[in-house]
Amino acid sequence: MAIYSLNLGFISRSAGRSAVGFSAYIAAARHQDERTGVIHNYECKSDVIVSRVLAPVDAPNWAKNPSTLWNRAEQFEDDWGALRFQNLRAREQFLSSAQTAQTIMGAIPIEFSQLEAEACVEEFLLNRFVSRKLVVEYAIHWDKGNPHFHGLITRRPLENSEFAQRKDRDIVTKAEHNITRKQWEVVVNKHLELGGHEVRIDSRSYADQGLSFLPTHHEGWYVQRFAERGEYSRIIADNEAIRQKNIEILCERPETLIQEVALKRTVFTRRHIEEEIIRRVGGDEKLFSLLKAKVEGISIPSELILKTANQNVMFEGGIATQLSVEIRHLAGKFTDELLDNKDVTYAVGENINRERIFTSTAYKAQEDTLLHLADTLSQRQTKAVYPDLIQQGIVNREAELKNDLFQEQKDTIAHLCSGPDICILNGKAGTGKTTLLKAVAEAYQGAGYHVLGASFQGKAVEIMEQEIGIPCKTLDSFLCAWEKHQKQKDLVESGKLWGRPYLYAFNQMKELEESRFTSKNVIIVDEANMVGGRLWEPFLEEAVSKGAKVLIVQDPAQIKSRDPGDYGRLFADRYCFIETNEVVRQRIPWQRECSKLLNEHQVLDGVMPYYEKGHFTWFNNRETLIDALASDYVKDLIRSPHQNLIALAYRNTEVYELNQAIRHHLKQQGELKDTFTLSGQEYAIGDRIRFPQNDNHGQFVKNLNKDQNEIQIQFKGIKNGTFGTIEAYDEKVSLFTGTMVRTVTVALEKNRRVCFNPEEYQHITHGYAMGVHKSEGGTFDKSYVSLDPLLDPSTLLVGLTRHRLDTELYVNREEFIDFKDVVDRIGRVSCKETVQDYHVSEDQKPFFNRVQHYRDLIGEGVTLREEMEGELNPKTPLYKHPSYPAYQLCFEEKKRVASSILEDWKNHAPYARLAGLRKDVLEVEAGLRPRLLSDLEYRASIQVQGYMDLVKETRVLWHTISETHPGVLARSHTLYEDYASKKTERDSLAFVFQENQKLYTPFLRVTKACTPIKSRAGSRVPPGDETGELKGYWGEFVSPENRVYISALKSHAEAHQRSQLQNLYYERLSSEDKAHYDIVKAYVSVRNEAAAIYSHLRKQETDSVQMTFPEGITLYQFHEKQAKRDELALKIVESPEKYQVYFDTLKVKEDKLLAHAVTGELRENVQAYAIEQDISKRASQAQELKRILTTSKDYRIFKERGLDANRLTFDIAFYDKVSKGDIDSQVHPEEVYKPIQSYLNASREVAQLWKTIKVKSEKSEQTEFQQTEWKNALKALNENAHQIANYPASLAVISEMREGIEARIMKQVGFIQRTTSSQDHSFTKMSNNNHVPTRGALQENRPYVSIEQVRQAIRGNTESITRDLLGEPNKHMSKKTELRFGNNGSLRVSIAGPNEGLWNDFESGEKGNFFHLIQREKRLNFNEAVSYLADVLNVKDDLKTVPSTKPIKYNEKISIEAVKDRAQRLNAVSELQMKSKLIEGTLAESYLRQERGITGPLASDLRYIPKGTTFMYQGERKILTHHCLAAFGKDHEGRLSSVQLTKLDDQGKRALTIDGEKWNKIQYGVAKGSFVLLQDDKTTNCVFIAEGLETALSIKEANVKGKIIASLGIHNISNYLRRKLFSVPTMMSINLVLRLIRLSIKLKIILKPKDKPFLLLNRLTQGMILMMFSKRKELKAFVSM
Hints:
Blueprint: E1 6-12, H1 19-27, E2 30-32, E3 39-41, E4 48-54, H2 66-84, H3 88-96, E5 99-107, H4 114-128, E6 136-143, E7 146-154, E8 158-159, E9 162-163, H5 174-194, H6 206-209, H7 221-229, H8 234-252, H9 255-264, E10 268-269, H10 270-281, H11 285-296, H12 302-308, H13 321-340, E11 345-350, E12 356-360, H14 361-378, H15 387-401, H16 407-416, E13 422-427, H17 433-446, E14 450-455, H18 458-467, E15 472-474, H19 475-493, H20 499-513, E16 521-526, H21 533-546, E17 549-554, H22 567-574, E18 577-580, H23 589-599, H24 603-612, E19 616-619, H25 622-639, E20 645-649, H26 652-668, E21 675-678, E22 681-684, E23 688-691, E24 702-703, H27 710-713, E25 722-733, E26 740-748, E27 753-756, E28 765-766, E29 769-771, H28 772-775, E30 780-786, H29 793-799, E31 803-812, H30 819-826, H31 845-871, H32 884-903, H33 905-915, H34 919-925, H35 935-964, H36 976-995, H37 997-1000, E32 1007-1012, E33 1026-1031, H38 1046-1067, H39 1071-1102, H40 1115-1134, H41 1136-1139, H42 1143-1146, H43 1150-1171, H44 1175-1188, H45 1192-1200, H46 1205-1220, H47 1229-1255, ...
Parallel strand pairs: 13-17, 13-18, 14-15, 14-16, 16-17, 19-31, 20-29, 20-30, 30-31, 46-47, 46-48
Antiparallel strand pairs: 1-5, 2-3, 4-6, 5-7, 6-7, 8-9, 10-12, 11-12, 21-22, 23-25, 23-28, 24-27, 25-26, 26-27, 32-33, 34-35, 35-36, 36-37, 38-39, 39-42, 40-41, 42-43, 43-44, 45-47
Helix pairs in contact: 1-2, 2-3, 4-5, 8-11, 10-13, 11-13, 14-21, 15-17, 16-17, 19-20, 23-24, 25-26, 31-32, 31-33, 32-34, 35-36, 36-38, 39-40, 40-43, 43-44, 44-46, 46-47, 46-49, 47-48, 47-49, 48-50, 54-55
């Protein structure tokens, strides 16, 4: 046991001491005493490791400076003396003896590190002194072998930032002094336990501890300095003698050492003895020599040994390096001697850790004696109660309680009233033991026996007296009375007395004889778990010798005795006992269940409901906790004044503080008024008090209610733990002595009133709060429990089972981090061992061995893990170590053994208790419950879950984005911003996780759960046939695609780190540098985007499968990115010194940068040329461009501006002609260039077609078609030549551009003149089908149709065309990729995939492409088939000629690109029409019916297109992001030409934007001349035209007659009027009639009075205007009008 030393004193001026000087000494500082002017300098001291001032939170700054603090403390005494004493002599006398401060000095255990010592000392001083508003300066002196602390404490507390006028005199009283000493013991032992040290200190004297060793004196700094200088010191000399004497005692009586060790533990190991020997010898060579002589058997007097030994040599830590090995060897030998000495130690066997264990022979003898006595009682059965008496006792209790007893309680009563003379009841806390004992006592009394009560605690005795109604005493009282009786008996029987002295002694003996047991006695021992062997031995001896019966009542789970052994549990295990489990004390059902679990020491399960239901309240410091607890206590007390409330704390200091805080709140509420002081403590009328000392016979505490019945009169005095309330306090002068007599009147429970003189009985204290230990056996209505780290399962059980109605728990976060910390520290398994615990029977050995095996596995696992962690790099995973498989095997075996232990927990529990194993920990190990998480771990698990969700979300988002926007193109996606935000959050979390992997990664790990598969019949398959599924930390199943790998954590963390470094680098730049950095970064970004677009455009060209491409990403956008990139590159190279510093950071390659800059400069020149209007400047720029345009890439840039290479030559030639006067300067160059451009383009196409025809030598339908195309192109070339020839300016310029071209043009003009006069009669009409145009018509209407256009249009439409061509297919034989026709499916047509359009007729053997199928079915040749498909698919002619022979104007010519654009638009409409669905039963119909109120039939041109439909439009693949109502429009020939889409949401309503506005309608195709026909009524010539679709449908709802058309736009109405006005006699426009009138005027349409439209309009003008403001319900009225 570590040394206890704590001394308190004063700084008194009468001793010539100064607080300033002492402060300088303990802190090794230099201070000047301002009162005397003396400078105290101790800076030479080098052993001070810490010096600090501890002050209350609200203390002023001057109180935190040591020099200022103690000078002000000295000055305050002077000021107070001058203020208090006017008499100079009295003042000087007061000041000369003033005590200005209090001192404290304590020894620090050598086991502490410096940090542990600092934490321990600070906690002690803060809790004991600073909490009382006192200021403390302390310093720790780390002397060699003698670490200790000094403290200097103010005598006066702080009030309002100044010293109070009243000193804190209570803290120096004897009672408070003892509390201070006890508090130091508690705090030190707490920190020793937290530090993993087994030693403890004890504030009791050696005599009180029963030790033979002598205590040493504390050696201060001065004493040690004397020793260093070799000077004499009385303390050192005395201590040297004491230590030598102790070693001599150890050598002469080795059992003394065993006795000291046995006080700490019942059984011990060899290691415990060795450590105690080494601690006692320390580094003293003289002591070592004494012990060595003893061990080696040298018979030399001690004086001679001490003379021959060297001087004392004390070393740091107590053991010198040169002596450590020798001393350990010596201690080992001496330990062997002690353990071999059968008179001193007894070998018990082997413990759970496979260590040999021993006990002292004294304890073994005591245990054997007690077991012999108990065996005697168990073999004797002298007292039995008739069943009818037992039943009568049960009936009486039920009548008193007004409810029936449980069967368990009835059985318990019967058990205790029968059987041997020792009966044991293990009654769980709150199970109603007192009620049962009252029935038992009544039954025994009815049988003629005398029932007595006994207990270790006075409070339990009082409860038994009051509740059971039997005479009771504490066991100490019985023992004391027996000892007195024996003395009186010895005196009477000695023969030395006669006469009246003999008579007096005889009467005293007879009176004391009444306390001895008789054969008629039945003794109930309550709270027997707290009784130690010292009391059990005489008690059982008395019971055995006198023939009494003993009823042991206990709760083995509650607080145990401080003596060695656990005899209550030992008796229960050895003899038959009955147990009560049904808790009745707590009124709330779930709290009763908690009490049951706490009785089993299952702390986690017993406390968790209180935590989950909000009964835990957390505070940041002790002061706020105490104040809040006191406030809650007082509120409940005022609300329910008749309730019995109690505050419980573990430490006496906290009990004191709680009592004071509660009284403070009561005073604030006006509940305590008339105050007075007793024994240094303030009391008041109405104060609740507690009596901490017995007055069994009423010697000092007198009853006042003498007129009460006999039951009340039998209660005399008070017992330790009795509560009461002060009713009155009187002070009066005695008539006999003339002194002041004070009387306190107190109201007790059961209407008892007592009074006492506080001068005679001073043992009272406030009773609002009490210690947990003292509360055992008590019951209260509500409790308020302050949790403490020193609580264990037993004391926690007591604290949480005292209440009936409710309890609240208060936790200080300075002591407990979180709920897990509460469970881990309070739930630690503590077990008082007995020798019998290790005497394991044969049938119990399997259980003992299994627990022992589990402990071995724990040690093996720890060793393996330490080995792996020690040999691997911290960042290397453990699974890479060669020992990891063995570690895994150990882990699995430990899990299996834990499961086996839990399967039979009842038999394993005693040995699990010895091993310190908690049941909930084993359940976690076996996988039966999740591990309890700390607050930090719980927050970490939530963070990990959030991280995993973010990983999954970013995966889904990136997959969605990359489908259409791969790579860096993702930045342009609408979802990218959301993705980037989530990615940033994900990476930042990953970085946090990476920094503390041990905390976070366990929640990311998955395990393979082996789930047995059931066979189809429901039986289980063999164990080997199992399937493994992945399970997360919480037991949820994890699919492989949703699994988050720990390896991904590292990459995410690195991404965050890179991002943070970039941001940090950017933030450190100046604003000017940031601008330069942003330009380089923009260049890199646009460079990467351009590269990505180009890559995917190339991939789209090469891939045969059509790719889904991002909306808006086209070749045009690629060119835009290129232009932006080159522009930025040019800007960078213009000032490289500003940007070059960022090249490495942003990974810019200079060669690429320069190439882009060159292109950027080229673009600038091209841009300047394109916008230049002056022909002279334009010509010079063209000359310069011809010089620098050297590669095809350069010309591509030129063409991106809408220019072609011929334009450069044209501008040079045109300017030359203008400057020479050959062309008028007023002629616009575009008018001259357009015919030239058309001619040159046609010439290039003719050449390309001719080259293609020449390459193909074999003749086929394909070459035949290409020859036809070539002829058509040649014809177009000749037509364009004719146009140039008719326009002299163009002819002159083109002649300048190309030498000799004029002759070629004139030759071509001559060819077309020869061919226009003749007719081509090589083709004849061939059509029996009206839908197939004649060859002449085809040639006339479609002079040039590209086969590639038709082929592209077929793709995706094969199925619909095939169905129209061949009818419905064979449903049973058709597939998604092919259709089968005929009963046998002999005709197969591929409709999807790479073979789309190919067909095969297995009956005829024919096969080919789709053109051949059209040829076969329609009996057409190849060209006619192409033309047919072009007509069906609405593929427009690819025109290459200008329809007029006169010179063309620039704004009237239709280019080839425009024709191709028109064809692409119409193709998109056709594709949407193919992919649309009938409107019936769709969201589109729901929109028209419900939102628009349309009830009539709907036209076939109104269809539904689902969300997600894709289609090609102008070379891009578009996706519909909404459901759409599609209105398909047709031109005047009835061909599909446009579609208008109305966006709908998922409920069939008009879709809204983010701002709540309706989405605009979208139109594809050719809107001009396209109309939606909603009603075609040929019975009348009326035509109703509406601008919008919904308006036209509303007209149709009115059941009007006539044709109803939607124009899909106001400006499209004129196209219908131009074509139909004079062919339709009557025309009406409903909601836009006025606009039509204005439009008619604009179109210069003359309406004569005789025309029907004019008359109708004139007649309906008023109604028309009304209709513009009407709704649909007024429509019928308008039409009828």
